[in-house]
Amino acid sequence: MAGIQYEGGCFCGAVRYAMTRPPLFTHCCHCFDCQKQSGGAFAINALIEATHLPLTQGAPVAIAMKTDSGRPHDITRCAQCQTALWSDYGRRGYLLFLRVSTLDAPHAIAPDAHIFTRSKVPWVALDGALPPGSATAKPALVCEVYYDMKSVWPAESLARRDTASAAAKR
Ligand SMILES: [Zn+2]
Ligand SMILES: [Zn+2]
């Protein structure tokens, strides 16, 4: 497959995917929902156009999650081992939040921003170090809640997001 940047899959190996572009932006999300749903201290989500996350093997299933906001949130999981592979927040279809830890090289992508740090576990220290592989090439932003996308994302990522959104409306 042309343009493969990364490959990954679920724990049992039934589902495999490719990622054919670097992510638009990557979050470490420290919200309580991510902690509960992952069983960990945070979720690492790389935002990527759905068209650049082709499935290469298997048939994962989307499971609807309850949210405080009432907006839809589907988590796509392997039907066999139930590994969470990516989320579609708002059921937009064109933008997916890939769980970075499911990559074959899970440390290849570093977060550009830590979000919802108001609920982070107290023993995770955010030292402002420059993570290798971040889209912004700046120390990851640390946000109590969220940030203003238009002033934070690289121009190229904003343009890619607009293109994906416009294509989805067609
Ligand atoms: Zn599996
Ligand atoms: Zn979260």
Assess the beta-strand content as a share of residues: 25-35%
Coarse morphology: globular
Order of helices and strands: EEEHEEEEEEEEHH
The largest β sheet comes out as: 8 strands, mixed
Q: Give the bound compounds.
A: zinc ion
State the helical fraction.
10-25%
Strand order of the largest sheet: 6-7-8-9-4-3-10-11
End-to-end separation: 26 Å
Oligomer: single chain
- The number of distinct helices, counting runs of at least 4 residues, comes to 3
Unreliable stretches (pLDDT < 50, length at least 5) are: none
Structural class based on helices, strands and sheet pairing: alpha+beta
Q: How would you portray this structure in words?
A:
By secondary structure, the chain is α+β, with helices and mostly antiparallel strands. Helices cover 15% and strands 29% of the residues. The chain has helices at 32-38, 149-152, 155-169; strands at residues 6-9, 16-19, 25-29, 43-49, 55-57, 61-65, 73-77, 84-89, 95-99, 113-115, 141-142. It has an eight-stranded mixed β-sheet. It starts with 5 loop residues before the first strand and ends with a helix. It binds zinc ion (ZN) (2 copies). One zinc ion binds at residues 29, 31, 33-34, 43, 116.
